[in-house]
Amino acid sequence: MPDKLTISQAVAPIYKEPTFTSQMVTQGLLWEIITVLDTNQRWFQVQTEDGYTGWIHEFYTSTSEKPNYNSIQITMRYAPVRENRGRDGTEKQLLSFGTRVPAESLTSGYSYISLHNGEGGFIPPQPPVAKFSRDSLIQIAESLLGVPYLWGGKSSFGYDCSGFVQSIFNHFKVHLARDTSDQIQDERLKKIKSEEAGKGDLIYYFENGNVNHVSIFLDEKDFIHCSGCVRVQSHNKSDPHFHSLLAEMEKQYFSIKELLKN
Known about the structure:
Helix content is 11%, strand content 40%.
């Protein structure tokens, strides 16, 4: 049994149990390193880089070690990998926002990146990561408007609420836990009153005393989150984008001030 594996596909589903009929609980992105805990026929029980545990089929994995090249971070919503620079050539893969891939060379703005099985391809120039701030956080979040909701999703092909928030902060190399119940325990997040919240602060929602949703605060009435899709909604009943269910739920607001120091 190998100690480590890497994700070999653009996005890989990770399940609660070792069967495709089980619930998908999270995802892995290309070249992510996963730790093997157990095996069951052609399935591996693994722990992801963010500490999440689940089962992945061998189809989505490789024993290849990540090449020792500089990494390129996918900052576009999607990045096609093609045989040639520009729009010519076969599209080999379509990479998600947030993927970090080893880049062998840079030519005319295009990066030649490593895929698995000795293959590679060109990706278009990626916008640089801005300095982490409340404004840049919201700018990245809004660049993903319309991405559909997917239970267990943490890619720009589909997010759940906590996967969306985690991916936004990961963009700035600020690492949050995968699930809302763990995110809210982060000692760097400081609980505040609703009237003290500023752009980029986090709102956690409770049902029957349990946290089950998260959004990013925009202003005194609006927030951005993934519910149905990534979208901006409001706690204000008079707004056309009012979210009645979340407006009625218990809420706790948390400042990201300490995270901004990273």
